[in-house]
Amino acid sequence: MEAVVSVMESEGVDTVFGIPGAAILPLYSALRTSGIRHITVRHEEGGTHAADGWARVTGNVGVCIGTSGPAGTNMITGLYTALADSIPIICITGQAERAKLHQEAFQAVDIVEIAKPVTKWAVQLKEAAQAPWVFREAFRVARSGRPGPVLIDLPIDVQRGLCRYDPELDGPLPVDVPEPAPERIRAAVDMLMSARRPLILAGGGVVIADAADELRALAEHTGVPVQVTLMGKGSFPEDHELFAGMAGIQTQTRWGNQAFLESDLVLAVGARFGDRHTGNLDTYRQGRKFIHVDIEPTQLGKVFEPDLGIVSHARTALAALRAAAPARQAGEWAARVGQLRRTLVRRDDFDDVPIKPPRVYRELNEYFPADTTFVTAIGLYQIWSGQFQHTQLPRRYLVCGQAGPLGWEVPAAMGVKCAHPERTVVAVAGDYSFQFLMEEVAVAAQYRIPFVIVMVNNEYLGLIRQAELAYDMNYAVDLHYGEGGIDHVKVMDAMGCPARRVERPGDIAGALEWAAKESEAQQLPVLVEIMVEREANAAMGPALDAVKEFEPVPEVVAAAD
């Protein structure tokens, strides 16, 4: 285990999250003499999400540790989340002695088989001599190709074993950075230059590849407007004249959808064509060609067959396209996108009481600076965030896009703050999501990890209620603040953390300022609970040409058509 800890240190791990238990104590004993900081979480799922947040902002491999049995099964949601969003983390579990595994020993579960569907690699260490090499390979696998999670299971008798290891002779294994085939780059440039209304679609792979500079250089060199997916937010500044919004059926801008529908070619880089982005594929594909660039070959053609596929790391592909493409000024198409951006907008300046959700995101945009790191999860508040929130920098907007586990925000924000103590970190959560893992607030309080929690509280399961409207039913959606629900301000107070409830739009800005200052002054998580309109719906539809509210009202449609 001393060799394992040495490997982790040399791989750049400075913080791990977990819960000690009897079957993992030899590893914890080795950690005691290392320079690695350990954050003891309240739940192993929270530990995986914290490691996830740490990995998303550093670009390195996050680590979560637990004991045998339920510790590993509690990690499955976090492993699935990391796999879905291409986030490199390693989960380490303790295990019963090898000789006891077939005898139904205490907490002896076959976690490797359980974890295989939600990991890139799940392995049990069989011999002590394998320890440094299995961990080196785990870091390589987690980082390589399309990044993702690894699980390593450690029987306790193997943990107690000895191996020969000299850290002076060891180091991280190389990770391949595939370069695009030159002939495919030339073909892509020909398609891009001959298109009349091309778009670049930047997915999460651009963020993961740290390719934001290359993306901007290509766009400015060719004059081609850029859209982002939800996972790609921050890869291109949203105040740039070539920003073309976001297309989708939930997290989208109206002008982004319109720009996409008017396009005739899409250069998609590091995007997986998720169903919440594409909606109906016939509508999505009609009238335009697609070039798909991805580091993982099997992603090409998975959702639909592109007109041209390129296997490459996003950064090297974008650089190669920039080098091969002739310079071209932004023309009529870019001007058209700008016109859509100015006209097909949603209002966010409401003064209504109860508060309308768009007003919350307007206040977030205005108060917090561009280098703030936002963390958000799943639900109506995520959809509103995608529709209204502005992001200018990479790795500043973190969202569990595909898996969407409730409760992700608080532990993920904790992981972000551990990685970057100098950053302002804001977790935007719903009331129900907050309750899933709210015990992790106590962890942040214990270790003095400050961040702001902005709760958008519509008092019950808003997204589920809105979905049920499509089925003309409203069954079992009965969580309510005033009817036996949870007083979130008192919950925060019970954990020693400040909190404030806001019910009028004019009070939001002051509450955000108070929370930011109070969090840093006391080095604690601070909650601002914003009570919003209970019946508020988010604009969404089955296809890009059918984005509408379930209950249309003039205030939430375009200000100008």
UniProtKB/TrEMBL annotation:
Give the EC number(s) listed in the UniProt record.
Answer: 4.1.1.47
In this chain the Thiamine pyrophosphate enzyme TPP-binding domain maps to: 378-530
Which SUPFAM superfamilies does this chain map to?
DHS-like NAD/FAD-binding domain (SSF52467), Thiamin diphosphate-binding fold (THDP-binding) (SSF52518)
Gene Ontology molecular function terms on file: acetolactate synthase activity; flavin adenine dinucleotide binding; ligase activity; magnesium ion binding; tartronate-semialdehyde synthase activity; thiamine pyrophosphate binding
Domain Thiamine pyrophosphate enzyme central spans what residues?
A: 185-321
Keywords noted in UniProt: Ligase, Lyase, Thiamine pyrophosphate
CDD domains, per the entry: TPP_PYR_POX_like
Catalyzes what? 2 pyruvate + H(+) = (2S)-2-acetolactate + CO2
| Superkingdom, taxonomy of origin | Bacteria
Q: Which family does it belong to?
A: Belongs to the TPP enzyme family.
Matching NCBIfam families:
glyox_carbo_lig (TIGR01504), PRK11269.1 (NF008431)
Name under which the protein is recorded? Glyoxylate carboligase
Q: Which organism is it from?
A: Amycolatopsis suaedae
